[in-house]
Amino acid sequence: MSNVLRARRRLDLLQVVLFFVAVLLVVVADAGVTSQYRRKLEATVEMPLDADVFRVPPGYNAPQQVHITLGDQEGTAMIVSWVTANELGSSTVMYSEASPDPEKMELRAEGTHTRYDYFNYTSGFIHHCTLTNLKHSTKYYYAMGFGHTVRSFCFTTPPMPGPDVPFKFGLIGDLGQTFDSNTTLSHYEANGGDAVLYVGDLSYADNHPLHDNTRWDTWARFVERSAAHQPWVWTAGNHELDLAPELGEHVPFKPFAHRYPTPFWYSVRVASAHVVVLASYSAYGKYTAQWEWLRAELARVDRAATPWLIVLVHSPWYSSNGYHYMEGETMRVQFERWIVAAKADLVVAGHVHAYERSHRVSNVAYDIINARCTPVRTRDAPVYVTVGDGGNIEGIADNFTQPQPSYSAFREASFGHATLEIRNRTHAYYAWHRNQDGAKVVADGVWLTNRYWMPTDDDIN
Ligand SMILES: [Fe+2]
């Protein structure tokens, strides 16, 4: 063989190799990340009933399980909830901008109380009291328990809604009350958000014999350290259903609805965000109340006033985990078209006990006959994140489907929480923190640009 021929063959071979390298690079560039990080394989362990985080506050009939949530759409009302366990305590809340001393608090609100029976359990007296006409961005001291043992707390109201008002949300789901749950909450506290968007599945009381409702009490005492000081926006998950016909319990959401005074689907406006909360376990088919409401609600969103449109839902629409696979599919089919048309920025879900972030994709082209039923990159589409990784008793969901689908940008079977730090109308920093790292370590972070004001291709990683 001549030298010339040999050289040409070598060149051909080189070209073939280069071609395959190029193909490989394209594939790798487009692929998402399935994190190789492996948490220690250990069971999630419920914190025992005598754990310090569950301690009943001292004093006769002392208010316990104190938590607050937003009481109106503008951030000028706050609903304070608590339980008195020994006897029916006062439903009065005293509050003040000026004085942390309950004796000197000059503002007063009267609440109501309720209680419920669940099989062999009777709840304490559950109080709800709405504080109204609050000023924005203002620290308020508040107290309750008058007549018995008084406890006092404080919160800061959210800033007035506006297009460039910065705000930091915590994104937490499926928390439960294990040692991992405690780590998740502590890490969130260390990261310092202003309010929590909670995407459902709170106490996991229903995983205990007879749906042991004392676990609803312990859970609320556990999260009080955060939830009494900043609003938690609640979403209903499947572990809130507490349907148990075998126990004679036929009313869905009975413990949750008595304890958490928010509707199942609703919206709040906080700083520069319009937050829409959906209910995965309430009817959402065409003409249902939730369907009618969402259609009207999306028309009410004013991106000039609140640029960031965030949707909360329990069961994810885009999840590539085998756990709860496709459970959110019917709601996706029903609502995704509207959410893309509305240019929502972020859809936050829980339910699956792992972490995942999607690229901006949609799957709304399919019309029964055109076969276009694959998620495709869509600039107007939201990023979907699943943060059902709070650390509950059911453990981690570590069976991701293989290979990783193209819509999935990053996924990892670890516990943790996320934060969304809105800077202005165009930019927000989204970060996920795994529990095994220091609280401030970002395991998955991405700058999001607003879909209404600056719809750039921000989903390159
Ligand atoms: Fe769930």
UniProtKB/TrEMBL annotation:
InterPro entries to which the protein is assigned, alphabetical: Calcineurin-like_PHP (IPR004843), Metallo-depent_PP-like (IPR029052), MPP_PAP (IPR041792), PAPs-like (IPR039331), PAPs_C (IPR025733), PAPs_N (IPR015914), Purple_acid_Pase-like_N (IPR008963)
Residues annotated as domain Purple acid phosphatase N-terminal: 63-156
UniProt keywords, alphabetically: Glycoprotein, Hydrolase, Iron, Metal-binding, Signal, Zinc
Reactions catalysed according to its record: a phosphate monoester + H2O = an alcohol + phosphate
EC id: 3.1.3.2
Gene3D superfamilies, per the entry: 3.60.21.10, Purple acid phosphatase-like, N-terminal (2.60.40.380)
GO molecular function, one term: metal ion binding
Top-rank taxon, per record: Eukaryota
Pfam families recorded: Metallophos, Metallophos_C, Pur_ac_phosph_N
Family recorded in the similarity comment: Belongs to the metallophosphoesterase superfamily. Purple acid phosphatase family.
Protein name according to UniProt: Purple acid phosphatase
Organism whose genome encodes this protein: Zea mays
Taxonomy of the source species: Eukaryota, Viridiplantae, Streptophyta, Embryophyta, Tracheophyta
